Give the backbone structure.
Amino acid sequence: MSSSPSRPGDGPYTARTPRVVAARKLQRRAERDETGRFLAEGPQAVREALRARAVRELFATVEALSRYEDLATAAGDRVSVVTEEGLAALAETVRPQGLIAVCDHVDVPVPDALARTPRLVAVLAEIRDPGNAGTVLRTADAAGAGAVVFAGDAVDPYNGKCVRASAGSLFHVDVVRSPDAAIPALRASGLRILAATGYGDIDLDDLADEGGLAAPTAWLFGSEAHGLPDELIEAADARVRVPLHGRAESLNLAAAAAVCLYASARAHRKTRAH
Amino acid sequence: MSSSPSRPGDGPYTARTPRVVAARKLQRRAERDETGRFLAEGPQAVREALRARAVRELFATVEALSRYEDLATAAGDRVSVVTEEGLAALAETVRPQGLIAVCDHVDVPVPDALARTPRLVAVLAEIRDPGNAGTVLRTADAAGAGAVVFAGDAVDPYNGKCVRASAGSLFHVDVVRSPDAAIPALRASGLRILAATGYGDIDLDDLADEGGLAAPTAWLFGSEAHGLPDELIEAADARVRVPLHGRAESLNLAAAAAVCLYASARAHRKTRAH
């Protein structure tokens, strides 16, 4: 059952076809912000985007349509066949595997995310590196977080590098874009606010031993270069450091976030089991 | 007390000075392998390299010599003053902050690393991405690992990206380069061999609850794209998966390694405390 769409009297789109030219502009943040759309590359992201009902148009090469027949079928009349050269014009990676989707933004307002009472939330404050942000998003999803807040001047979650690093998780958790870390709202919904900082006064292991991770938790993570802003460190309920057992001066952001989020996941699992 | 070396009748080195030209060749693996040397960029790496007595020659701009006087003093007559343009020719990053050191390889043979009876070891099997390898090296150091084994066709630990991602940890832990994962030697020195794999039959949390992380441990990590080779999965004492609580299909390598290594660090700490 192939859904390869026929377009009578019209070959595959090229790099100069107006719809391809328009979609390509979504590589720029200004265009993404203005249109509320973004690009997702490759079969994994496209599959998750289709499940999340976020796909507006799926650009696919003839080869990709036959290789990923399930995705072509799911996209139905939203498929636009493109030449290899047309796809390359849209792609930010060397190997998009023949598929690029134009998607609608998927973020939700803070109250919507909190209405689902997540027990674990990650707040990315002023994180500028899109690869780091996407990796933390992926890790937060894996650790069972219900929401990830991109706060302040954090990177655009729809930046191509962030979308790719998230490996589909952008479509799994509630992504929130907020001008600030929304601490009052997080706290009002019963989340304990923990600031992850190398200068924290409590060690993550000690906190876990004290039962300090059992409550629903929102973790605040800052940029690797500058850490968390002072006002967020002060606003948190506790300032937590990942213990450094060897001679490394610090962990990189994604590793620190993985250790913190999984410590929470483990504490929550024990709480449920008892 | 400035140690800015004077070279009578000789200005700062330029990109065409033979020693700069020779050092630049160390950006290539073949040259690194042949000479047993590599480049370390920036003040943090240079500081750690000096502490590890690995520095042969320190190329520094006049500005960097005055900004990092302690490093210039420590390097003494190994300092070679270069022009900004000479430094740029040596640098792989945009901002090497005026300092690049030619270092001797620091890796040690397997028996030397094991003679120090490390309680935590990370084995990187067939990991090709230098940024990933360097990040895991940094995380292993932070978690208190005594040795990191680059096994098989793993990336060159002296690749510039790996050196930078390790953030100095290349000079902190015993780095071992081995044609294979050295499992018999690791096991003979009392290390329990755990393979980190998404298809593991035991969950990391369950293993921790059972006390399965209390023993000295060597973790095997494979590439993100291909995972661990089958023979290593089979050779391990246990196959361990990081639990996935959300909808992510997997964790990225650096995040998975952080969670595994810190679970071991936490178990070892509890063991020592009792």
In short: Chain A has a mean pLDDT of 93. Chain A touches chain B through 39 residues (CB under 8 Å).
